User: Fold these one by one.
Assistant:
Number 1:
Amino acid sequence: GPAALTQTFSTSRPFWGLLYQLLLPLVGPHPWVWQILMVLHRWLAAVFVWIIIRQVWTKDPRPALWASALFLVYPGLGQNYIALMYTHFYVILDSFLLSLILSIMAIRRKSAPLSLVALGLAVVNLATMEYFYFLEFFRLLLFWCILDEPLQKRIRHTTRFYLPYFGAFVGVTLWRAL
């Protein structure tokens, strides 16, 4: 049952088992429900990709539309048909992408609460599994792209905004390694 999954993943993917324990009773053992849930999460991920790109390229909407459309139709994962197993990947991917969106919004609005939620979702990604682990460094590039400042100020602000996320990355990495 779900408790056994938590114990199974406790050493390699500590919070992934908890995600199973939460979703299995909610969704149930019906494959078609898992398929629908997976399609919805994949669609949500494409919407999040569109939002992220729109926040970086604010003047032209076409790159965001094409990138999100490609993200939606390109399989990337060849085992989408095993929805019970792989829906959880999209839940974590959506958490990570939402974290990127919120961190960009936090910088633009100078909002500490948004930053904390973004940081929490980043930790969910890092602590749950390793598939999207190094995508965390993409956040640094996003921060660089959205800050339109002179070079020295841009470097300083990009570093300052990224430090909490880097700290979370190092902290979770050490925790998982030890």
Note: The mean pLDDT is 89.
Number 2:
Amino acid sequence: MTIPRPEHPNPQWERKNWRNLNGEWEFDFDFGKSAREKELYKNGALSKKITVPFCPESRLSGIGYTDFMPSVCYRKVITLSKEEVAGKVFLHFGAVDFHSYIYVNGKSADEHIGGYASFRVDITTLVKAGENEIFVIAEDDVRSGHQPGGKQSKKYSSYGCSYTRTTGIWQTVWLEFVPRAYIKSVKYYPNITNGTLTVTGEVEGGGELTLCSSYEGKPTGSAVIHVNGGFFTAQLSLSEVHLWEIGHGRLYDLELKFGEDTVKSY
């Protein structure tokens, strides 16, 4: 089966070791909103199939159910290698509408509130080499008045500028495999006048952090600093200044290396 939306979901923060989990998942409705009480995340297979990341209201999902769904369930079994579980394992969701509960191998991993923002779950301590089960319960009720619904219809049908609702997973789901010492986050602060780029961020572990910039394949600057966990600040002096303007979205490529961790950005 061809995986829908196979591209890396975050090209500004791309590692080589990742796996797209889009495609076929097991699925079921939870009209009684009782999946957590029943502990369905411990009970094995679900009765239906769905194509992630398309929401169950969409025909592309293979479900195409457009009535109200107060809760839905997803299940997927994956196989991980010893190498993949040797470091940190992060489970990413591009978006799940609305209140999601994440379980891995029958244990609670995290929960997230909000249907529009991406989130990441550290599942390092819950996975093992071999088969692993991911289970997601997504509760969603735009008529409750207790959650933002945007233009999602509070009636059965679309009307005016309100459209059929989006429930559950509706953006890419993916795994990221990261060394124990890794770059946790960065922010970029360009200075046009001085032709510099200040990079602030946070790392886990200690070692040498290298930052290299390029423009259309040509090196334009680099910096090396030593960090020992926590936050850092580094500055690159750019040999060429190429500014963004209307009709010309000029971008520098940026590579960050920290021990065995390498991140491609821009």
Note: The mean pLDDT is 96.
Number 3:
Amino acid sequence: MLLHVDIPTETDLRALAEARHPASVSIFLPTTPVAGEISGDRIDLKNLAHEALAQLEASGVAKRDREAIGDQLAELVEDDDFWRFQANSLAVYATPDMVRTYRVPNALTRAFDVADRFHLKPLLRAVTFGQGAYVLALSLGHVRLLQLTAEQPATEVKLHGLPKSATDALGVSSLGVGTESRRSDTAAGQRARLVQFCRIVDRALRPYLAGKHVPLFLAADTAIGAIYRSVSSYPHLAPFGIDKTPESLSDSGISEEARRLLDRLHAEEVAALKAEFADRKGSGRATADIDQAARAATQGAVQTLLVDIDRIVPGFVDDETGAVTFADANDAAAYGVVDEVARRALQSGARVMAVRAADLPTDSPVAAILRWAA
């Protein structure tokens, strides 16, 4: 069962964050990648579109704009080719002038939002904690790069120039490793060859991994793993890996190990941010107050922002000052202020992470780590 995903790029997110139209519709729904079971998903999108259009009508949006959005969403519902290839969730963004779709591996909650801007938090979740990783299976006699995607077994990535083994990389018949009678100077020479081997592997991976932000886990015994880590140029090589020779693991075994490591990596990242938030709060460089976070985001003072993916706080944020006015209901006039704080933080170059409530340092739906004291 193959997932077809469209993870938004930074450029995509910025474009969505900057988009403005009085009739902006955001729709999110869980989907299935099983082609024979998508009829229910199509009906669900149709129903959500109907609800969104009704809210647009109630708010006084012009009929021509409602019809333009309705026509585009109806075309999407009827697009058989589109529905043949799905992931675990679908995000749809529509105005009278355009429609954008993103198929994501994350499990998103069924919802829609109508405002003069798009609702970004659910999509940010797919970017915050991607479900993919690479695994470099490395030993003297075994070199492979595996790609892990959401809920799918690891598959090998065929790379030109990636050696199959140490002897293949170095063009020799034997390294002489493991011969206890070797003198210490020979052992030093063997280590130099292992370093050379690891450098060759790193150089082969570099063009393929350039510009990527996906974690790379190393599956290797501790000795060769330590050498590879000392020469690796990939900035997202995880600090821990699968400390076993890859020959002892099946691809499914590597997948299971890598998923556990991915969960650990995410948990440690959240824990580190919570600790940083607590450390900076005492000096005024962190806040969980929505109004303060909105003002800081407007001023470009947010360094890292954590937002609750599920909680919606309706209201308005002043364009100039960032002051927040809360509303009683989430309708086509008001919008989610937490989402707006995230949008402004994104535009200023901040790191924005959409997390579950349990991952936030306080009960507030926002936690902002600031570049300077508020």
Note: The first helix runs from residue 10 to 18.
